[in-house]
Amino acid sequence: MLIVQKFGGTSVANVERIKAVAERVVNTAKQGNKVVVVVSAMAGETDKLINLAHQVSPNPSEREMDLLLSSGERVTTALTAMAIDALGYKSIALTGWQAGIITDTVHTKAKIEKITADRIVNALNNGYIVVIAGFQGITGKEGEITTLGRGGSDLSAVAIASAINSDLCEIYTDVEGVFTTDPNIVPEAKKLEKISYEEMLEMASLGAKVLQTRSVEFAMKYNVPVVVRSSFSDKPGTLVTKEDKDMEKVVVSGITYDKNQAKITLIGLPDRPGIAAKLFTDIANANIVVDMIVQNVSSDGKLADISFTVPKSDLNKALKIAKDIATELGAQNVIYRDDISKISIVGVGMRTHSGVAAKMFETLAKHGINIMTISTSEIKVSCIIEAKYTELAVRVLHDAFNLADKPTV
Ligand code: ASP
Ligand code: MG
Questions:
Q1: How far is the C-alpha of 148 from the C-alpha of 70, rounded, in Å?
Q2: Which of 5, 98, 271, 361 gets the most CB atoms within 10 Å of its CB?
Q3: For residue 197, how far is the Cα from the chain centroid?
Q4: For 256-400, CATH number?
Q5: Structure confidence at residue 302 as a pLDDT band (50, 70, 90)
């Protein structure tokens, strides 16, 4: 088999961990597999570099930022290749550009445009274990170093797996897989044996931190089988794959929470065409990603309230835009809350089972938890609640949907 193994920051946090990674890689190769390794920077290293940049400049240039941040992965790539070599296996370390990862020109959040994988493939064919720096690439024309956005080495791994037609992409991290919910809140949370791309995508974007959202999108689009597992144990992880019949039998696969949201409400806006367009165009132009949007029209049909949620880090920016628009359009008031959290239940089985949302609302009500906003998709229901009820909500929902009774793996 041809396998891509990606190791996150905690898996390469120090020389002991890097040697353990080398051993795992070599064992995989011993079993007759060709292996490509993708590594993150050592845990905390990227944050440290960002911090250094801000110490020398209030507004560091993004081009130089990319040059700086890409150095974290160069370190672990070289060390990992050396450690593999020390075990008697041929290994070569490649930066993003040496590996042919071509991106667009958007510094600090570049998109991969293509991967010219000849060098990777040649090295594999010559018997090398290829170690590639995650999170980085190079622009096609100018030859500038770019990075792919935080957590981007997951994306590097999945994209490389797709480019070289790998049989499997293993993402090694410090948890044993994808759980029904955060085991820190619910100790009985169960590890899922497999989960569909779509569910994983919802869970990743709803706050589950095991995989970067864009990497899941990529895996889904190109059908790359991904396994999330721990580099600290030998237990099998969770397979992220195409939906199958079995998955539909389970109504809810997981519960996520996100405390990183804030909610803004414009009260008493005129109810006429173009109002929402104006508001959300201005918000979008400020590069703020809006999550939920709810509009209510008063019974006489003349005024409307619009609520929406944004990441907490964008609250001040969004609030200013909302206030400007409120003044311009003659709205009555703008209010906000940042003591909220979003609780979501996710499962492809929702497509074929009724009453799932009702059960969620009933469960929250029974525990005195008020719901401020609701949004749904085909496979998820999300509620905004007061942040102080987050843990309670997660626990009672995990219980209500019997997630602790899932077969263990
Ligand atoms: N080192 C980068 C980060 O911390 C990329 C990654 O670890 O995936 O965001
Ligand atoms: Mg990561």
A1: 10
A2: 5
A3: 12
A4: 3.30.2130.10
A5: confident
Statement: 2-174 belongs to CATH 3.40.1160.10: yes
Instruction: Please give the pLDDT value at position 63.
Output: 97
Within 10 Å of residue 285's Cβ, how many Cβ atoms? 9
Q: What are phi and psi of 346, to 5 degrees?
A: -130, 135
* Ligand 1 contact via 74 beta carbon (within 6 Å): no
Amino acid found at 42: M
> Other CB atoms closer than 10 Å to residue 84's CB: what's the count?
27
Specify the residue with its C-alpha closest to ligand 1, atom 9.
150
CA of 109 to the centre of ligand 2 (A): 15
Instruction: Report the candidate in 185, 191, 215, 297 with the shortest Cα–Cα distance to residue 8.
Output: 215
- Per-domain boundaries in the chain: 2-174, 256-400
Output the CA 146–ligand 1 centroid distance in Å. 13
CB distance 40 to ligand 1 below 6 Å: yes
**The pTM of the whole model exceeds 0.85:** yes
Q: Determine whether the shortest distance from the Cβ of 96 to ligand 1 is under 6 A.
A: no
